[in-house]
Design brief:
This protein is α+β, with helices and mostly antiparallel strands. It has one domain: Alpha-Beta Plaits. The protein contains 5 helices and 4 strands. InterPro entries: Dimeric_a/b-barrel (IPR011008), DUF3291 (IPR021708). Pfam families: DUF3291.
Length: 173
């Protein structure tokens, strides 16, 4: 979703990513992960296309409750579009953390990451993220809740290529 003729976009991309910890946050096993949070978040805050991220008084969101599970942590942010999010995810310090995620997080079979479009300037709540994630788990990718692999355009935008719409699900936007 790009700006046309200097008009700001009507929608921005929200993402929520949950991880189920293998160890307590203050354990030696998670020391490298915890030490990397502030530098990676600082990089995100200045990345092209970054808009906003969820954070508590700690500066991150590791102490924000999600889905009633004390072992789950959430990362939630808003980006200009999928290109901006992808560019950040797969480079630098964040890429290094992704490569080591199995050391720190349990492998979970159900969806733990969800994307959705929000009106520009809206900061989603954890309750919104939980609702979108649970919708994705039940219905698969739809315009309401989707993944990077199967994404949908923002309302009123043209098609995103490639779009992989599961059989029987239509795109109503």
């Amino acid at each position: 979703m790009t700006e046309r003729f200097g008009t700001p976009p009507a929608y921005q991309l929200a993402q929520a990513n949950l991880g189920r910890l293998r160890f307590p946050l203050d354990s030696p096993e998670l020391a490298d992960f915890v030490a990397a949070l502030d530098p990676v978040n600082a990089t995100a805050d200045t990345a092209g296309g970054f808009v906003w991220r969820l954070q508590s008084d700690s500066g991150n969101a590791t102490d924000v409750p999600v889905l009633g599970d004390d072992w789950l942590i959430i990362n939630m942010s808003v980006w200009r579009d999928t290109d901006a999010l992808t560019a950040f995810m797969y480079q630098g310090g964040h890429r290094e953390l992704l490569a080591r995620r199995r050391e720190w997080f349990e492998r979970v079979r159900e969806a733990m990451t969800v994307l959705w479009w929000v009106p520009a300037g809206h900061h989603p709540t954890v309750a919104e993220a939980e609702e979108r994630l649970l919708h994705l788990r039940v219905h698969g990718p739809t315009p309401y809740a989707f993944t990077l692999r199967t994404s949908f355009p923002a309302q009123g935008a043209g098609p995103v290529t490639p779009v992989n719409i599961p059989e029987g699900l239509g795109c109503s936007v």
